[in-house]
């Protein structure tokens, strides 16, 4: 399989998976009724931010896959993707803010571990995860605040 086709597959998996999960677990009345911190962004911001981040995540995974498909960076990439994809159903569908907080903190740790291990293998892939780390750090603070307020 050529590199371009692999990139398309990574994009379909990550962006498509993220969009499907986002569509299936859209914030509803439950989320609207939660007490929110003053720094809570408007709901419309999440979809474009996550779309861009999912593109970066897919490209990073594709790059690492080509460098070492079975190494630690790739294992961490799959782990962070699983944690990322499970957070929305736990938070928005199951309404488990505390469990979602644990998941997002594990996700943040997996992101930092990916950056650290990918750095030696592919610095571009590691840098592609920096905006993701920043957003998930912010989302962790938001999740913790929602937990404390509700």
Automatic annotation (TrEMBL):
Family as reported in the entry's similarity comment: Belongs to the TspO/BZRP family.
Major location category of this protein: membrane
Molecular functions (GO terms): kinase activity
Membrane topology label: Multi-pass membrane protein
Any Pfam family hit: TspO_MBR
Annotated Gene Ontology cellular component terms: membrane
Signal sequence coordinates: none
Superkingdom field: Bacteria
Keywords in alphabetical order: Kinase, Membrane, Transferase, Transmembrane, Transmembrane helix
Cellular localization per UniProt: Membrane
Protein name: Sensor histidine kinase
TM stretches of this protein: 7-32, 44-64, 76-93, 99-119, 126-149
A biological-process GO annotation: tetrapyrrole metabolic process
Keyword Membrane: yes
